[in-house]
Design a protein that fits this description.
alpha/beta, two-stranded antiparallel ribbon, globular
């Protein structure tokens, strides 16, 4: 691709050929064995053993420590084996393994040159179904039943409490550096949407470096607060990935001129063994 280096993250070695056919760079994560043709998060300075908790961010950490300086100043993006960028809206049921290659982003349009970052279209946290609200956040509902009727109060912080543990986000923000703490706290307490899936495309490796330098020291502090062994259930086991997801949305909105485009969903694991 002429002006875009896209890293596609997966857990399956069988995805290599298809990812290469997309014109993307295959990145292997997790416990399975990947050949030397793959980018992985296991060499040099790494936190690959924390993948269960950090998800995609074990690779971002590896890139920060080992590869960032090797990048040219070009668009650098990240997608996943079941989530891909597109310039157009598509119904997920219309996407299949045979047409995915023609739907995904291959090159950054010239008119995007005025932007520094590309993010996924926002996910609105105040539009979930009432029964999910009651099931996941019964204790929160009992404390403040008016949240059930007031969408404006169902902000990012409320949603995080609901899905990833009450007060976990607040306690994590207490550990954030001074230059981001107040702004990030205000963001999660006032906004009702964030740009999801830990996916972004960045125009400058220097911007990417600044993001990593703000993110990873904070997550390291959070490890002392949450640890690993006592994290139970998907919503809490991957808490470092979920913290990074909210912070990513805040940080690039604050520190870059950004554009949002659609993310399309097709899990290619269904097509490969």
């Amino acid at each position: 691709m002429k002006n875009l280096k896209m890293f596609c993250l997966t857990l399956e070695p069988s995805h290599y050929k298809f990812i290469k056919e997309l014109g993307y760079i295959p990145v292997g994560l997790g416990e399975k064995s990947f050949s030397d043709d793959w980018f992985t998060d296991t060499s040099s300075i790494n936190i690959s053993k924390k993948n269960k908790y950090y998800a995609e961010y074990t690779y971002h950490y590896w890139m920060w420590k080992n590869y960032l300086d090797k990048l040219d100043n070009e668009w650098v993006g990240f997608c996943q084996y079941r989530k891909f960028w597109s310039l157009e809206q598509h119904k997920n049921e219309d996407i299949n393994i045979n047409n995915l290659n023609s739907k995904v982003l291959k090159e950054i349009p010239k008119e995007f040159d005025k932007y520094e970052t590309i993010l996924g279209e926002p996910f609105f946290v105040n539009q979930f179904k009432p029964m999910k609200f009651i099931k996941n956040g019964f204790k929160i509902f009992i404390k403040n039943p008016f949240l059930f009727f007031n969408k404006k109060k169902r902000n990012i912080n409320f949603h995080f409490n609901l899905m990833h543990g009450e007060n976990n986000l607040n306690n994590a923000i207490d550990l954030l550096d001074a230059k981001n703490q107040n702004d990030f706290r205000n963001y999660v307490n006032t906004e009702v949407s964030f740009n999801p899936h830990n996916m972004f495309i960045c125009k400058s490796k220097h911007k990417l470096k600044s993001y990593y330098e703000d993110l990873f020291p904070w997550l390291e502090k959070c490890e002392k607060l949450f640890g690993f062994e006592n994290l139970k259930g998907f919503g809490k086991v991957r808490i470092y990935g979920f913290l990074a997801e909210r912070f990513m949305s805040y940080w690039f909105r604050k520190n870059s001129k950004y554009k949002t485009i659609p993310i399309i969903f097709h899990d290619i694991r269904k097509n490969f063994t």
